[in-house]
Amino acid sequence: MSLDVARIKKDFPLLSRTVRDGKELVYLDSGATSQKPYQVLDAERAFYETSYAAVHRGAHALAEEATIHYEDARSAIAGFIGASPSNIVFTKNATEALNLCAYAFSNATALSRQGAEGRSIDPRFILGPGDTIVISEMEHHANLVPWQELCAKSGATLRWFSVDDEGRLDLSNMDALIDATTKVVSVVHQSNILGTVNPVRAIMDRAHEVGAIGIVDGCQSVPHMPVDIAKVGADLLMWSGHKMLGPTGIGCLYGTSEILDAMPPFLTGGSMIEMVSIETSTFAPAPQKFEAGTPMVAQAVGLAAAVRYLEEIGMDEVAEHEAALTAHSLSALTAIPGVRIIGPSTTFERGSTISFVVDGLHPHDVGQVLDNLGIAVRVGHHCAWPTCRRFGIPATTRISPYIYNDESDIDRAAAGIIAAQKFFGVAP
Amino acid sequence: MNLESLYQEIILDHYKHPRGQGLLAEPLGSAHHVNPTCGDELTVEVGLATGGGLVVGYEGQGCSISQASASVMTELVNGHTVEEAEAVRLAFIAMMHAKGAGEPDEDVLGDAVAFAGVAKFPARIKCALLGWMALQDAEIQSGLMTPQSNEKTQ
After folding, report:
1. In which domain, by residue range, is B35 found?
2. Distance between A382 CA and the closest CA of chain B, angstroms
3. Which of A18, A88, A254, B146 is the most buried (most CB within 10 A)?
4. Residue B87: what pLDDT?
5. A101 classed as catalytic
6. Exposed/middle/buried for B58, CB within 10 Å: 0-12, 13-18, 19+?
7. CATH number at residue A379
8. Which residues form the NIF system FeS cluster assembly NifU N-terminal domain (chain B) (predicted)?
C-alpha cells in the first residue's frame, strides 16, 4: 500500500507556502530537518495551554499533569523503538547524546585517576593509551569529533572502518579493527551523506565479543525505517526529534539498563540527584541521572505526537514509500549525463537520502539554481567532511525526501539539475 | 531576485576563465582559508614585484562565486601598492555587507561591482569574501600589513 502523499501534505502547513517569488515549494532537505504536521504543533500548543508546569517537582495539580504528560511521552517514544521508558534519556539533540556517551568515558577516566573515594567506577569506561575507539569513515561529525576529543584527553587511539567506492563499509578487516584493545565501537546506522544502511548488528556483535560498548547513531534510521532496538543490538543508540516530524530541542538516547547504570553522569545539577550535602552528592537512577535541570517537556510532548503520527501511517509503509522514492531518484538522477551518485547505486541496503555531484558544477551552484526554482536541497559536506575527502570531492548536492514527497518532487529536482547544467553551459 | 542578478556575466566569465590562478614562486606570505559550511578551500599568496607592486596568486576549489571573486581580486590588486589594494578590499567587504543598498563605487571596485547582487544572498556572502579574507591574512603573514584590531572581518 502506498502512502497518500497528497493527504499527508495537507497536514504540513509550511509545505503549502511558496518561495522565491511565488514558486511552489519542493522540500527535499528532510535529512537536515523535517517539517512539522499540525498534530505535532497542536500537541505542543495544547500542552502549554492546558497542562504546563514544572515536572518531577511540586505537588500541585498542574505539576502532576505535566509530569504525566512528560512521562507518557517518554513511554510513547520508547515504544517506537521497542524499548522501555526507563531506557530512554532526553537530551537537547543527538549531538548532545553522543557527547553524553563520550563524556561517560572521560569522566570515568578522570574519576578513576582521582581515586574517587566511595564511587564505583566501571572499568569498561576507563580509557588510556593502548585502548582503541572504532568508528567509520562515513560518520557525521557528531559521531567523530567527540571521539577525537576523547582520544586527545585519554591517550586512546581512534580507528575506523574505511568506505569503498560504492559507499559501503569495508568490513573485511573487522576482527582486526575491533580487537581486545577496543573499548568503544560507534557507527552510523544510515549514513546522512551516502544513504548507506550499515549492517550494525554484525558490528555490535563483534564489539560485544571483545567486551567493547557498542553505540549506533540512529539519526537517519529511526525516522525512516522500523527500528527495533533488540534487533540492532546496540548498548546505546541516539536519534533526534526534529528529523522525525518532532520539535527542535529534543534528542533521545536509548541505553540498556546495565550500561546506563554504569555510566557516570554528563551534566550535573538539579533533578539528577538522589542526595546532596555541601560536600558531596549521589545521583538518581537513569534516566533522571542524565536529565539535569528543567527538561524539554513541551518538546517531549510534541515528539510523542510525531511518534503517534508516524505509527498511524506505519513505519513499514514509510520505509516502503521511501524505497520506491529511492528507486525513482536513482534512475532519474543517473539518467542525466554528467551526474554521478556518491553512495550506493542500487536500492539494496540504502535509504532515500541521495548525494550526487554534477560534472563541471559546484554543489553550491547546483543548489542555488534549484533554490531559484523553489526546490530546497542541501549542499556542502553534510557534516561528514572525511567522507567527502574519501571521494575526493569538496562537497555534494543532496536530496533527502520523506513521507510528504512523491515522485513529482524528484522529477522537479531532476529537471532543475538539467536547468543548472544549461545555465552554466556545462550540459554534456 | 533572480539567478542573473547573482550570476552576472562577469562572474561566470571569471569562473570559466580564471585569472591570476596559481601559487607564487617566492611568496612573502601565504594563507589557507576554508568555508567550513561548504568545504571550499582557498590558498592565497602574496609577494612583491621588482617595481614594488603587489603580486597575488591563489589556488583552491570552490563554487563559482568564491572562485570568480578570487580571480577578480587578483586583477584588482596585482601591481598596486598594499594601501591601494586595501582600499579596494575594504570597499568590497562594505559592498558585501550593504544588503544590496547603495551604489558600489565602480572606480574603486571595477569588475568587482558585479558581486553587488551576491549581498542579497546571505548564504553566498562568505563565498565571495573567501579570497579577500585570505588576502588580508597573507599580507599580515608577509609583514606587508599589520593586523588592525578594530576591523570588521566577517
Report:
1. 3-142
2. 8
3. A254
4. 95
5. no
6. buried
7. 3.90.1150.10
8. 7-127
User: Pick from B3, B38, B65: which is nearest to A423 by CB?
Assistant: B3
Domain of A71, in residue numbers: 45-311
Q: Is residue A406 part of a domain?
A: yes
Q: A158 and A304, same structural domain?
A: yes
Q: Can you tell me which residue has the cell 543532496?
A: A398
Three-class SS state of A254? strand
Which residue from A21, A365, A381 is facing B63, i.e. has the nearest CB?
Answer: A365
User: Which helix (H) or strand (E) element contains residue A238?
Assistant: strand A236-240
The alpha carbon of B2 is separated from its chain's Cα centroid by a whole number of angstroms, namely 23
Instruction: Tell whether A272 and A341 lie within a shared domain.
Output: no
C-alpha cell at B25: 614562486
Q: Between chains, do B127 and A424 touch, taking CB under 8 Å as contact? A: no
Q: Which residues of A touch B39 (CB under 8 A)?
A: 380-381, 385, 388, 394-395
Domain-located, residue B152: no
User: What's the residue count for chain A?
Assistant: 428
Measured between CA atoms, how close is B65 to chain A, in angstroms?
A: 8
Looking at the structure of chain B, the number of domains it has is 1
Low-confidence ranges of chain A (pLDDT < 50): none
A381 touches chain B (CB under 8 A): yes
Query: Cα separation of A29 and A420, whole Å?
Result: 18
Tens-place pLDDT, residues A192-241: 999 999 999 999 999 999 999 999 999 999 999 999 999 999 999 999 99
> Tell me, what DSSP letter sits at residue B121?
-
Q: What is the ipTM of this complex?
A: 0.89
